[in-house]
Amino acid sequence: MAGNTYGTLFKLTTFGESHGKAIGGIIDGCPAGLELDFEAIQKELERRKPGQSKIVTQRKEPDTVDFLSGIFEGTTTGTPIGFEIVNTNQKSKDYSHIKDTYRPSHADYTYDQKYGTRDYRGGGRSSARETASRVVAGAIAKQFLKDIKIHSYTSSVGELEMDIPYKDLDFSKIDSNDVRCPDDAFAKAFIDRIKEIRKEGDTIGGVITCVIQNVPVGLGEPVFDKLHAELGKAMLSINAVKGFEYGSGFEGAKMKGSDHNDIFNADGSTKTNLSGGVQGGISNGMDIYFKVAFKPVATIMQKQETIDANGNVVEMQGKGRHDPCVVPRAVPIVDAMAALVIADFMLRDKSIKL
Amino acid sequence: MAGNTYGTLFKLTTFGESHGKAIGGIIDGCPAGLELDFEAIQKELERRKPGQSKIVTQRKEPDTVDFLSGIFEGTTTGTPIGFEIVNTNQKSKDYSHIKDTYRPSHADYTYDQKYGTRDYRGGGRSSARETASRVVAGAIAKQFLKDIKIHSYTSSVGELEMDIPYKDLDFSKIDSNDVRCPDDAFAKAFIDRIKEIRKEGDTIGGVITCVIQNVPVGLGEPVFDKLHAELGKAMLSINAVKGFEYGSGFEGAKMKGSDHNDIFNADGSTKTNLSGGVQGGISNGMDIYFKVAFKPVATIMQKQETIDANGNVVEMQGKGRHDPCVVPRAVPIVDAMAALVIADFMLRDKSIKL
Amino acid sequence: MAGNTYGTLFKLTTFGESHGKAIGGIIDGCPAGLELDFEAIQKELERRKPGQSKIVTQRKEPDTVDFLSGIFEGTTTGTPIGFEIVNTNQKSKDYSHIKDTYRPSHADYTYDQKYGTRDYRGGGRSSARETASRVVAGAIAKQFLKDIKIHSYTSSVGELEMDIPYKDLDFSKIDSNDVRCPDDAFAKAFIDRIKEIRKEGDTIGGVITCVIQNVPVGLGEPVFDKLHAELGKAMLSINAVKGFEYGSGFEGAKMKGSDHNDIFNADGSTKTNLSGGVQGGISNGMDIYFKVAFKPVATIMQKQETIDANGNVVEMQGKGRHDPCVVPRAVPIVDAMAALVIADFMLRDKSIKL
Amino acid sequence: MAGNTYGTLFKLTTFGESHGKAIGGIIDGCPAGLELDFEAIQKELERRKPGQSKIVTQRKEPDTVDFLSGIFEGTTTGTPIGFEIVNTNQKSKDYSHIKDTYRPSHADYTYDQKYGTRDYRGGGRSSARETASRVVAGAIAKQFLKDIKIHSYTSSVGELEMDIPYKDLDFSKIDSNDVRCPDDAFAKAFIDRIKEIRKEGDTIGGVITCVIQNVPVGLGEPVFDKLHAELGKAMLSINAVKGFEYGSGFEGAKMKGSDHNDIFNADGSTKTNLSGGVQGGISNGMDIYFKVAFKPVATIMQKQETIDANGNVVEMQGKGRHDPCVVPRAVPIVDAMAALVIADFMLRDKSIKL
């Protein structure tokens, strides 16, 4: 159980290091007969890609996915979908400065301790580059989900918090700006803040909100595999995530039952939705919504003290091109993981209509 | 994948409804040769038990666990440990008033929709009674973990938040009061608040903090089964949980990298611990700590509008004895799930010494 | 992955030792809404029960199953079905003579070596008593399978082999005799042979043939979880099984392709069925049939040399009441495992109609 | 659970169709620090490769494996090992004659029925080409297993059966002839028989025997995941396999207990080994041995009647270059699957020393 697989029936296994030959994965369990829109898949990759805008890392990687199996004449066959994204810049960079040094708040130290070895180039397996494979699989899951729509967007950057309820947002505007916030004013503020931080050679955290609409009633498997528990796990498995809350979340912990309970309408829908679309771990047909907290990127362009593999204290400074804020590029990753979770639950319960 | 199993190598499968004959479970994968302290197991059950104090439900259930297999002359044999807790008060209560009615913010509606049927007595499978089985398994996992210590405690009740860092708390005082808060003053405030709420016939949410100490370096399996991702899933699988954050959590999303990074000491430990003991999904040997948000109990002693199975609007009011705040009794459940997560990871990586 | 679970979506986990308090299990994933015929379940247990006839062990055990959860008003609810069979004669027997002795061709030695300890009473977990739990789950699986019919029967005892093709047998006669062979003449010969062997204080092996009818096309998941591969695993997991073959089996290895190929009829059925109802790991709608070889019971009523835990050579002799031939009582176990395999595949492929 | 993964801790997932871009897989769970012998891996592929001798198919495929991840400077890192084998002749062949025709005793019909579509070129996913990925993973598993040695060899071709006990064979001679039989005389007879059959435009079945030596005591997880049950499943998952038996096998079913029991030596080894190295599903330290029966290849160079997708009866004849007997090329596949099974069990039990 080495942990490189997500899902049980719609199952993704990924492989690949940041600076190896390629990254990629196998999607096992995608139903046969799904006519794929390859442009839509590539478009999701573009949303995650480095170098896409001024507020993200300026590295250039083409990130073109190559499908190797499981698709015949454009349609899934029910057999495993193997795919890869070749790492074009794998040899270009010099990582010798971190070969024997543990970057603070990176996984260098823990990988070395766990495995007794590591591919130090660009973070190796611990690099967020791995998430490109998730985006590919998530894009296919999205197509499988048809009418179920997933909308992730940036809702906070640092201390700046967008206080607009999702109901009042126009999701079609999410990609209208570089930070992926559907509100123009907040988008501008977020972008300004990220630029400011970048100038300081620093980084900053943020929050992504995700809304899932048109979910059928009945998704989720109590008691351990509750719908929101799997969503939580999937989100927490994304690099740099520190927290997950759904529905009322941590605010809900401050409330009284008389204020928190969602009163039913006659059709089974609820007047409010503090439950976040899930009751007892099972979707109730209301919108599912949750928040995902991302820490600031650990690599900063400032000098920091750290240690090397021999325990000597050394000084280091981030080199190259790094993201000042991970959130804009993480939006499609949250989308992807949400799609994988929902797709998996669609297959797990045979009584749910596809 | 019907969701009633947690873990991969240290594996718990539970069964049982609130008012069926019994609840219980099977622990598969507990290593052989563990001499069990049965009193310690029963003591954990007492901590979760209804009727234990004035601020929890006054229902009386003996909650005595009966082990059926996997233990020979007091020691585990490596074979599955079957156990059960007989439901003594299974027939005593009248639940006919909820037979055809969906309680707001309960799982009545979603179970009916998913399964086409439900055992409505006391919530059936969706009742938190199921967690007693988790407490039994967690108590055994705790004994397996030996020097790894897990300390959960109430850190918020409603809007009252204990702002004392865990380093300044005396964990030995957790059970010195009914609300399971190791600080006397906050404990008193929390208890007063719960009593107040109970008088109103209302309920209130709260937060539990958990600290895990003496964790070896190397636990956790990237990329999907990161240590904190599994902790998150395990916690979110507990009834009434709305959020999970570890280390700096949602606050971390507001910070800059230069403030958030944990600088190493020469021995690999870190000067700060905003990472919460986990880097890249792998334990780094520092304390693991996280927070779990619980919503207010949905059953309130006030009149509420709801619907019946035919969609008619009806009025209902909670009957019987319910918890005004779930948090005091949830402390041992958080303990148990944390123990199960850690025990599982101890077995998943063969390079970790037991 | 301690191995006490069979199945992925229709999942059985068992617990229990031969002389512990109880054996039992949890069935997770049985769909909701199945009205159970409890008499039919108990009847399958009677078929496996000791003491049922003169050619099996004369031990008396009531083997009454008690359902603890997952069933409400006689119908499955979709939640886990917990059940137990109390071991009534758990304390009555004296097993001190094998406490420190390894019985030849038993699991005493391997359990001790693997776990460092064992419950030696009656073989503990390695006893075939565990299969009673499988029979309970299999009986429920059978009811879930409705029109799919499973017919297992004794086809060999020792060197006596029934050479009648299954097409010429009347399955309704399987239970008309003690050895569970649908042909009167062979049944008599088999019974006579077993009686003879018992008189010698010896035991003998045998073969069970199983035929599954009315299987829909499409069951089975290539490439590793082929339908016949799972059937093989399930059968080989039964105590005392030494071999499995389906369709033409080992005889097929002697044949030419021109003789072995099954030629199609216009409707997709085949004129012959050397394939045994499975092509490429997927059911083709023809009858599935296979054979399972059982070794002779290891406990014999004759003196044998063996060793104790200290490596001393000692003499031992079987005591008590043991089966001279395991096959008659293994018939319902083969039935049960076949039912579990088919039920699981019915749920794994969402395109298969229930 | 779409079935393209084998193993739980040493886990192989494969992808790829016979005439797609590439086949390959991901090995997840291979421990870090294993220095790989890449020549040894390629050599195993050569043993499975078409065109290697006069008694196998004369197709030419280079079958060169390309590793994409999980290996750094020649040593495994503990992260997933992605690999691929490019299909060089993917476009060269004309398969239009089978596009709408179901070949007898092939998986064409069942794939079409299950998935509603199929990649008909060369059998697509159902082609034994997939097993090249298993050979790669198995070759790595073998290196992980160090002193545990696996020896598979051809023991029967058609009705010709080699009656020499494995103890009397020199395993170093297995690859000294084209049919992979360690006895010169039988090798010659087998080869002659295959040549004869090929001239007839026919095919023939055969049997492979596998012996595993130096297995530690304690491998295998009762009750469902017995060592021999997993071996059986793994073998039955190989294309064309019809039967599996271990130790005394089907012959054991004819024996008496007094003849079948393996009497212990003082050191825990046994004087005989009818048990085949496994007691109660757990290895006992003796040699493990088993037999695997392969049916004759379904594609023959003779005219056969069959049906097309519309149910019309048509005539067809195999084209191109096919194996007259699958057994010589299946030897490395049996080796590979055996290695994967043993490697997985080595990791599943933490008390087994690596």
UniProtKB/TrEMBL annotation, chains A, B, C, D:
GO terms for cellular component: cytosol. GO terms for biological process: amino acid biosynthetic process; aromatic amino acid family biosynthetic process; chorismate biosynthetic process. Keywords: Amino-acid biosynthesis, Aromatic amino acid biosynthesis, FAD, Flavoprotein, FMN, Lyase, NADP. NADP(+) binds at residues 48, 54. PROSITE patterns: CHORISMATE_SYNTHASE_1, CHORISMATE_SYNTHASE_2. FMN binds at residues 125-127, 239-240, 280, 295-299, 321. This is Chorismate synthase. GO terms for molecular function: chorismate synthase activity; FMN binding. Belongs to the chorismate synthase family. Its cofactor is FMNH2. This reaction introduces a second double bond into the aromatic ring system. The lineage of its organism: Bacteria, Pseudomonadati, Bacteroidota, Flavobacteriia, Flavobacteriales. Pathway: Metabolic intermediate biosynthesis; chorismate biosynthesis; chorismate from D-erythrose 4-phosphate and phosphoenolpyruvate: step 7/7. It comes from Dokdonia pacifica. Its EC number is 4.2.3.5. It is an enzyme of class 4 (lyase). It catalyses: 5-O-(1-carboxyvinyl)-3-phosphoshikimate = chorismate + phosphate. Reduced FMN (FMNH(2)). Homotetramer.
